[in-house]
Specification:
single chain, 271 residues, mainly alpha, MetI-like fold, 13 helices, 70% helix, elongated, Nickel ABC transporter permease subunit NikC, peptide transport
């Protein structure tokens, strides 16, 4: 767990301190310095437009982690609200919300994300929305199950007897009780979301040039794979390390919480 936590902490520090880590502007074009080899001035060399590769990787950390953090927050928020309402209200409300979840869950997440981007248009904002909409239903299902279990406990029954409204009980008692489990289990999907962000940007559906982002950096470097392989290897390694860090953290957190709880959150995803 500590290895994963340390790597994630290091990546977060790089994202926050990017302007102080490198003196170069990641979007500054310098045709005279194109495709330079690594040197004391340009630690990872330059790309086909003369932009410093190290600066672009560092600032790309901010873009990629920022997108994943937003997806994380949105998925948990939507999933918690929908799942909590379905589990606590039951009846027709539960039926409608769960059938809606079923509709989203029948389509593989990447296929659904691509369809939504086709409807919404390209750009990182729409990528974040598309990935959120293709994943929230899994968490709504999980929250509903946990809510149904919590409803049977004594302190919830006591709150009902005391005259607490459904909304108040849901907000004050049920959602806080499952928040820790939900956050821990969602760390298992952080690497998956990172791959979605990078993959969609690689396809030209995410950030627009010249914004530094690892997926689009790999796409830009394809024509130079044999003459300047570092242009692909470095952002590819950044994606690999980040996904590995998220997976290490998620697996360790899940095992510490309860291995039997991981199934509903991640086992059904069609990646």
């Amino acid at each position: 767990m500590w290895i994963g936590l340390g790597l994630v902490g290091l990546l977060a520090a790089v994202a926050l301190l990017a302007p102080w880590i490198t003196p170069f502007d990641p979007t500054e074009v310098n045709p005279e310095a194109r495709l330079l080899a690594p040197s004391a001035q340009h630690w990872l060399g330059t790309d086909h437009l003369g932009r410093d590769q190290f600066a672009r990787v560092v600032f790309g950390t901010r873009t990629s982690l920022g997108a994943v953090a937003l997806i994380f927050a949105l998925v948990l928020t939507i999933g918690s609200i929908v799942g909590g309402i379905a589990g606590y209200c039951e009846g027709i409300v539960d039926a409608v919300l769960m059938r809606t979840c079923d509709a989203f869950m029948t389509i593989p997440t990447l296929v659904l994300a691509l369809f939504l981007i086709g409807v919404l248009g390209t750009g990182m904002t729409n990528v974040i929305i598309a990935i959120t909409l293709s994943h929230w239903a899994w968490y709504a299902r999980l929250v509903r199950g946990l809510t149904l279990e919590l409803r049977q406990r004594g302190h919830i029954a006591a709150a009902r007897v005391a005259g607490g409204s459904r909304t108040a009980i849901l907000i004050r008692h049920i959602l806080p009780a499952i928040a820790g489990q939900l956050v821990v289990l969602s760390t298992l999907d952080l690497g998956h979301w990172m791959l979605h962000v990078a993959g969609l940007s690689f396809l030209g559906l995410g950030v627009a040039a010249p914004t530094p982002e690892w997926g689009i950096m790999i796409n830009d470097a394809r024509p130079f794979v044999w003459t300047a392989p570092m242009l692909i290897l470095v952002p590819g390694a950044a994606i690999l390390v980040t996904v590995m860090a998220f997976n290490l953290l998620g697996d360790a957190a899940r095992d510490r919480l309860d291995p039997t709880l991981a199934g509903p959150a991640t086992g059904g995803h069609e990646h």
